[in-house]
From TrEMBL, chains A, B, C, D:
Pfam families: HTH_6, SIS. GO terms for biological process: carbohydrate derivative metabolic process. The keyword Protein biosynthesis does not apply. Coiled coil: none annotated. Residues 5-81 form the HTH rpiR-type domain. This is DNA-binding transcriptional regulator, MurR/RpiR family, contains HTH and SIS domains. The chain crosses the membrane at residues 152-170, 240-260. InterPro entries: Homeodomain-like_sf, HTH_RpiR, RpiR-like, RpiR-like_SIS, SIS_dom, SIS_dom_sf, WH-like_DNA-bd_sf. Keywords: DNA-binding, Membrane, Transcription, Transcription regulation, Transmembrane, Transmembrane helix. Residues 127-265 form the SIS domain.
Amino acid sequence: MDERNDLILNIQKQFPKLSKGQKRIAQFIIENYEKAAFMTASKLGMETSVSESTVVRFANNLGFEGYPQLQRALQDIIKTKLTTVQRVDMGKEYSTDLEIVERIMKSDMDNMRHTIEMINAAKIETVIDMILNAERIYVLGLRSSKSLADFLGFYLGLILGNVVLVGHGISDIYEQMLRISDKDLLIGLSFPRYSSRSIEVTRYAKEQGAKIVAITDSEISPIANMADEYLTAKSNMASFVDSLVAPLSLLNALIVAIGMREKSDIKEHFNKLETIWEKYKIYDGDY
Amino acid sequence: MDERNDLILNIQKQFPKLSKGQKRIAQFIIENYEKAAFMTASKLGMETSVSESTVVRFANNLGFEGYPQLQRALQDIIKTKLTTVQRVDMGKEYSTDLEIVERIMKSDMDNMRHTIEMINAAKIETVIDMILNAERIYVLGLRSSKSLADFLGFYLGLILGNVVLVGHGISDIYEQMLRISDKDLLIGLSFPRYSSRSIEVTRYAKEQGAKIVAITDSEISPIANMADEYLTAKSNMASFVDSLVAPLSLLNALIVAIGMREKSDIKEHFNKLETIWEKYKIYDGDY
Amino acid sequence: MDERNDLILNIQKQFPKLSKGQKRIAQFIIENYEKAAFMTASKLGMETSVSESTVVRFANNLGFEGYPQLQRALQDIIKTKLTTVQRVDMGKEYSTDLEIVERIMKSDMDNMRHTIEMINAAKIETVIDMILNAERIYVLGLRSSKSLADFLGFYLGLILGNVVLVGHGISDIYEQMLRISDKDLLIGLSFPRYSSRSIEVTRYAKEQGAKIVAITDSEISPIANMADEYLTAKSNMASFVDSLVAPLSLLNALIVAIGMREKSDIKEHFNKLETIWEKYKIYDGDY
Amino acid sequence: MDERNDLILNIQKQFPKLSKGQKRIAQFIIENYEKAAFMTASKLGMETSVSESTVVRFANNLGFEGYPQLQRALQDIIKTKLTTVQRVDMGKEYSTDLEIVERIMKSDMDNMRHTIEMINAAKIETVIDMILNAERIYVLGLRSSKSLADFLGFYLGLILGNVVLVGHGISDIYEQMLRISDKDLLIGLSFPRYSSRSIEVTRYAKEQGAKIVAITDSEISPIANMADEYLTAKSNMASFVDSLVAPLSLLNALIVAIGMREKSDIKEHFNKLETIWEKYKIYDGDY
């Protein structure tokens, strides 16, 4: 991965052309990019004794539409390098429970907004086609992505039937994927910090000829690189918790879209389930 | 449950005072509230041959700030009665994959906005205090709420250590809760359609003297009624999938707030984990 | 269930023809059959002031080959009625850890011996044919039978591929069995005390037209009654632990016999797995 | 591991003193020990043109009580080297399902007999003391040993309460063992082929100061080497299935012995559970 070097190199390359104030920004970022990535334009301005609009022009000069885009690029670089310990420290300036809760939830909303903006109609359609055309669909998600995998596996299983959720029970992932072939699809869910095991298993599936769909946080994630197609959703690095709110919403939406394509089938399944649920009183009847 | 009757009764009570057009709206809602709950103000106007602004005034006359609030009240009533089959039909007017995906994700954002608005500082603090003061914390979530429970149990377990995630493995929930007592806390996660089993287990915990915190969708949910304290997050009924995006974001935020209270402890834990993760190459090192 | 009445009625019917000493035995058994079922012939003789050989003749008069057969019949009657609390008390006369360990393990060996004696070549072949001919094989085992189901599901999955282990993860058993049909097979594992849920689920599978194979403790168990074919293995009631040693050995043997029928296939699978295991260092290389 | 060399070296050392016929046996074993380990004395005699009694004397000369002991030593050497593929081939000479089933189950009985013979009263007592004195008990078993771990964890959890079954759910083993300390105990279950991960995790627990109890197949297994105390049970290598019948029986017995020490406690727990089981109809009432 040399993305970091790319941005930093670019800053160094532009350096001679920059104004005096912008040079101070550049210097600060090169030396403190991990800190800079979490400063507002105004704070970065204060730190380097320039106006906020100078900071914005600096971002423009580097080819970014605005400061938020530069900031995001900086965050993307360091994101996967931040340890949980550093992430605990990031929350330090908030004093009340309420402030923390509101900050985290608003950050989740930002991630969702960002995720919706990135949606690409063609990619969505390709992914759904790949899912509907696969002979078997393997769903992979480890560590914090496991609850995403459980959710996706549960609903895809209801709609489609030919779904295998790997990484459960007494057998190993490879044993569960023993028969994966070029007619099959692996849906890999992987968000920072990327699990080594998920990457390894995805590589194995690819070697067996299976198609790969990645659900991940960026087009440069290790699993996206191996995928035939990928969808991205922003995960949250604003705390020591891996926030998977936007990814969950994307999965929600994907499941519903698949369901709409298989509508008569799933109505039949749900009719059957409703009968069972009522017979065995699975849901509370008074509500 | 008499909430439905309350709203319908209120409409009937206001009926004499309403304008001719508003009476047609009232009539239509009383007879078709399940349909009305999903119409826009303009569609409801067309259906009853009144203007959109008449619909809005009708909502105001019933004491609602606007039509969206009336609509939400109608949706709340019927929410838990909609079967999955009806919910599949609700998606019918959308034609492209993209439209569906965007609609679902925007609906998740609405839920999040609504959830943030409902946040109550005192409740948050009480819940965190209850969690930090419990001798043991039992985390309960079944069916689609199980992935929420997994997520909460995982992080609370990292931070606190005295956490039991029930409903896993070969033992039954009651066997796992054999020793629950009045020094312990049960955190019950329950969203529509409410699992009968979750209600039953929560009642059992209460009978054993345990404190109850409910994380649920409304103050009138069955599990909120039994709880010593509760937090609410909007779940989604816009499709056959139980959307738990806003609840997941609330849990995220809650976990971070708890972590901030126990900051030195969790830094120590994470320091230890980082060493282990590096030693066993749990995370991808190139990213 | 009138098995109890049958044996007791039979004793009462034979009563007039019995010798004086045998009458005392009969009386004692009728009044204390739950106690008698766990006495040796010699102890029962002492209790009723007769010789051990009188006890044996008494068993013969009732049509049993010997005392062990009578005793087993008594145990079968009460087996499923004994609560765990009674079963804890059954261990009372043993004083050292060693005595307990040896008693339990010897009792497991007796169960195995008994199980091997009951093996029926035709039943074994039928069960294997049913397994190899099914389109999908669902494996069901709940509560203490769940570890048996995990074991069977794991190895059948390796050999055959079309295996679904139900009762795991976030979906409900019925959701996992949504598509079960008359081309499919349910293997139900059920040992005393019989789980109500297992019986209910097996009934559901039968209603959907699926074939049923029961692996259970006796031909009169509830699940055997519903099965197209069944195999029996003795479970242990000598303690509060449900001993599933003989059932596990039967599953072992069944899996190997299926493997031998599919030999070239499984060699191919294992060749592939050995390569993976070596590549990822799954097994310790020094041993 | 040089056990193999030890036995082979010993044969080579004794070689000069052996009779002509015994020399042929020695030669054959050195060159074909993997084959010899599964021959009867009579077959080995035929292969090397000596009488069966010469084979027995050969075993005696090497210091073994009889041929079975020599054979077992040979089997122990190669056991962990046999791949699943070789183990599939080992079943080749059996033609009917019944023969296979009986052979496997009898081999399980042999393992149990062998295991009972090896029981050591002092070790049993030490292990039970260690279990009862630990602050927390972590139960570890991976791959095929996982169903053993589930079983042990389930019952120990009922009896003792302070039990953590690791290797489940979305968190990693190390995260579940984050707080393990020198007041705690790890019970490691490990049978051939030994999982590398289990060895690694046991080493980690030891480094944290925890006491280690190994339940394994021999005193020279990797996990026994790290343990403060260990118990052995014979596992089966007669097929491609890891037979864990004797280990399961040993766990059964161990659980009952622990239960007898905590008798009044577990009666109280079971009384409570019986009430719950009846209330929620967990067990079938007709049986």
